[in-house]
Amino acid sequence: MIRLTLAAALLASSAPLLAETHTITAGDGAQERLQETLILAEPGDEIVLEAGRYVLTDGLSLDVDGVTVRGAGMDGTVLDFTTQAGAGEGLLVTSDNVTLRDFALENPKGDGIKSKGADNIVYYRIRVTWTNGPDASNGAYGIYPVESTGVLVDGAKVTGASDAGIYVGQSNLITVRNSIAEANVAGIEIENSRNALVEHNIATRNTGGILVFDLPGLPVMGGGNVIVANNLVVANDTPNFAPPGNIVAGVRRGTGIMVMANDNVLIEDNIIDENPTAPIMVIAYTMGFEDERYNPLPRDVVVGNNLYGTGGDDPQLDGADMLLAAFGGALPPVLWDGLGSIYAVEGTAGWSLNLTEQGKGLGAANPSPLAAPVPAAEFDRSGIGAPAELDERIG
After folding, report:
1. Distances from the Cα of 210 to the Cα of 51, 159, 167, 251, angstroms
2. How far apart are CA 138 and CA 161, in angstroms?
3. H or E segment at 6?
């Protein structure tokens, strides 16, 4: 028995030594070689994609826990899906403890990288680009983790997504940082998720920069506990190019940071400039719904100190000319629809639509300057953000 126990201990201690490194090169047969390696990899293995352009004609998938896929940099290793058949994602990940780092995807027919139910996933220095610029035919999402616990997106860049560049949905314990979202419909989107930290990002030339909201009818409900801090949210002025019927097709060009139907959100220490509809917008869900679990109102949204430049000077709002005249040529930086609850630090300039009922639209508005109470206590930051051990993989 002692010998068996000792043998088992030695085997367990040697398991990491059995991990292998698989090196893939660009060129003929790259599709088959890469997909075969993704299938046959064992937990702990690393798949190294050498520098080069990999011309791929079909999507890839990974369903092995604990694998690292590493390229030679987001401009060095490029997975080119321009000739991809079908409309699937470029890479689908359905396993836990995966690290994706230092490579790019271009022109996937569907989403760039989608991870579903993949806990403790890291996206590090990943680029997803649609090279034809803003276009409704582009894939919906660039980086797309959903239904996960533990998500870290760091140093990513996404351009051209017809829904959201960086999207995290129905997830918990999330950090999105040091990333660039440019020329998407929504730059960064946190949807039906809890305990998310969005910091030190650049959101520019999108229709809307950073969006935090809940939708009805999804498996995971009740998003909240979100911090949006220290981001550069500038010149989000691209006309909305989402396909008709998409929920983000209703995002107004020139929205900087928007919170909709979410709970306990802090917006502070951001630089917000040249967002022509609203630097900050806090609103209720605008449509009808049947989901009894759903709360359509924003609750306990805290607007802290932010640095505001120009904005609100060309709003995509009904009655824009009259509003601009009433407010002296530009709308104040914080727009609240009057539903739910909002707090703002002393000296925050804003205005309210003073709506009295969810779903009635702008026709029921009675605009006036914002009257919001100051926060009664410090925002509780505990438990917000990705688990610390995810940082260790990229340290």
Report:
1. 32, 14, 10, 11
2. 6
3. helix 2-14
Task: Say if residues 280 and 256 touch (Cβ distance below 8 Å).
Answer: yes
Pairing mode of beta strands 278-283, 334-336: parallel
Amino acid at 59: G
The DSSP bridge partners found for residue 124 are 101, 154
Whole-number Cα distances in Å, 378 to 196, 246, 263, 299: 17, 37, 16, 16
Q: Is the pLDDT of residue 259 over 70?
A: yes
CA-atom Rg of the chain in angstroms? 22
Structure tokens at 283: 């609103």
Model confidence over 269-297: pLDDT tens digits? 999 999 999 999 999 999 999 999 999 99
Q: Which residues of 35-50 are buried (b: 16+ CB within 10 A; e: fewer)?
A: bebbeebeebbbbbbe
Joined together, the tokens standing for residue 371 give 């009257």
What are 151's two structure tokens? 């998500």
Give the tokens for residue 173: 């314990």
Least Cα distance to 162 among 133, 127, 191, 190 occurs for 133
> pLDDT at residue 135 above 60?
yes
Separation CA 374–CA 303 (nearest Å): 9
Q: Give the pairing type, strands 255-260 and 46-49.
A: unpaired
- DSSP states along 210-274: EEEE--SS-SS---EEEEEES-EEE---PPP-PPTT-GGGGPPTTEEEEEES-EEEEEES-EEE-
Pair of tokens at residue 226: 């979100």
**CA-to-CA distance for 382 and 390, rounded, in angstroms?**
17
Largest CA distance in the chain: 87
Backbone conformation region of residue 73, classed left if phi is above 0, alpha if psi is from -120 to 50, else beta: left
pLDDT of amino acid 14: 35
Three-state SS for 115? strand
Contact 166, 159 (CB under 8 A): no
Domain boundaries, the chain: 192-390
Residues contacting 326, CB < 8 A, separation 6+ = 367
With 90 as the cut, is the pLDDT of residue 329 above it?
A: yes
Torsion, CA 71, CA 74, CA 80, CA 81, rounded to 10: 100
